[in-house]
């Protein structure tokens, strides 16, 4: 029996192989490109993978300022975290709703166990943890988005990391019609927030209740 991990992985590869030739993009008039940046002006609901930390708290407020109704989503994969405090924080920042989803059982049975069975290791040394949790988290994020009739998902993964790929390819393999808003790949966001100090300053200006000192970060 094929595991969901394998299905998502192969769907992601198929999505990549079907992608248009990037070299053709400059020849197409820019007004015809269906980019997320151009769609930001139209209001809609976005399900944000939210942790309550600096990045996703700032992104939550930024999405609201861009005209979105934000549903903050937290996945409980078994980690120790004060989810109620995160719920209060998300609502205080203006989230329309905070959804806390328990996915620890499916994470263990459908992601961790197949990885253990296949002796999956990173660099033949490290057990997989975060890299397995992301597809599980993203799958539930897609379910919430479809349940709410939304069109967008978002997350706070930095543009140089692998988590953006894990989130977005999972999303697109399960629901190609849902669009991913990746702030750290959008010039209007990363040109504004070039370093942690910029995020900290934004947090202080917007009254985001998080520790905003270099030592705490």
UniProtKB/TrEMBL annotation:
Gene Ontology, cellular component aspect: cytoplasm
Keyword Nucleotide-binding tagged: yes
Keyword check for Amino-acid biosynthesis: yes
Gene3D superfamilies membership: HUPs (3.40.50.620)
Domain named Arginosuccinate synthase-like N-terminal: residues: 46-209
One term of GO molecular function: ATP binding
Signal sequence, renumbered to the chain: none
Keyword set, alphabetical order: Amino-acid biosynthesis, Arginine biosynthesis, ATP-binding, Ligase, Nucleotide-binding, Urea cycle
GO biological process: argininosuccinate metabolic process; L-arginine biosynthetic process; urea cycle
Catalytic activities: L-citrulline + L-aspartate + ATP = 2-(N(omega)-L-arginino)succinate + AMP + diphosphate + H(+)
Pathway: Amino-acid biosynthesis; L-arginine biosynthesis; L-arginine from L-ornithine and carbamoyl phosphate: step 2/3; Nitrogen metabolism; urea cycle; (N(omega)-L-arginino)succinate from L-aspartate and L-citrulline: step 1/1
Pfam families: Arginosuc_synth
Enzyme Commission no: 6.3.4.5
Descriptive protein name: Argininosuccinate synthase
């Amino acid at each position: 029996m094929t595991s969901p991990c394998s299905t998502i992985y192969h769907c992601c590869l198929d999505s990549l192989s079907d992608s248009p030739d990037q070299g053709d993009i400059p020849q197409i008039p820019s007004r015809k490109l269906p980019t997320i940046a151009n769609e930001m002006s139209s209001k809609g609901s976005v399900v944000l993978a939210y942790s309550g930390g600096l990045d996703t708290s700032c992104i939550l407020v930024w999405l609201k300022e861009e005209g979105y109704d934000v549903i903050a989503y937290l996945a409980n994969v078994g980690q120790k975290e004060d989810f109620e405090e995160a719920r209060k924080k998300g609502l205080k920042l203006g989230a329309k709703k905070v959804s806390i989803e328990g996915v620890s059982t499916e994470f263990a049975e459908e992601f961790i166990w197949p990885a253990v069975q296949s002796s999956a290791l990173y660099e033949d040394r490290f057990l997989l943890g975060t890299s397995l949790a992301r597809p599980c988290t993203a799958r539930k994020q897609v379910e919430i988005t479809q349940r709410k009739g939304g069109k967008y998902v978002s997350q706070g993964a930095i543009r140089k990391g692998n988590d953006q790929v894990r989130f977005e390819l999972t999303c697109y393999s399960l629901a190609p019609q849902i669009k991913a808003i990746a702030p750290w790949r959008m010039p209007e966001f990363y040109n504004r927030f070039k370093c942690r100090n910029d995020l900290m300053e934004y947090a202080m200006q917007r009254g985001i209740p998080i520790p905003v000192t270099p030592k705490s970060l």
